[in-house]
Amino acid sequence: MGLQNTMRALADPIRREILNLLKCGRMSAGDICEHFDVTAASISRHLSVLKEADLIRDTREGKFIFYELNTSVLEEVMLWITGLKGDNDNG
Question: How far is CA 66 from the centre of its chain?
Fold first, then answer.
């Protein structure tokens, strides 16, 4: 999975907000850009970081690229974080 890349991707508030937007379903880069007061190039870079961390997937349809969550990686991260908590029932 590359946990270091995943944690680095999740560290940025814009990238976390992009993930929140994608909870509702897939979106084009243009639709994502409309939610932020930064350049399209900046959003493109954030999307690249999320994609490198395997947190999102992209699909090209004609001239548009649509992004969606990769929930399997998010589930792996949640399991890892939950495992840090340990089993406190024993004492």
Answer: 13
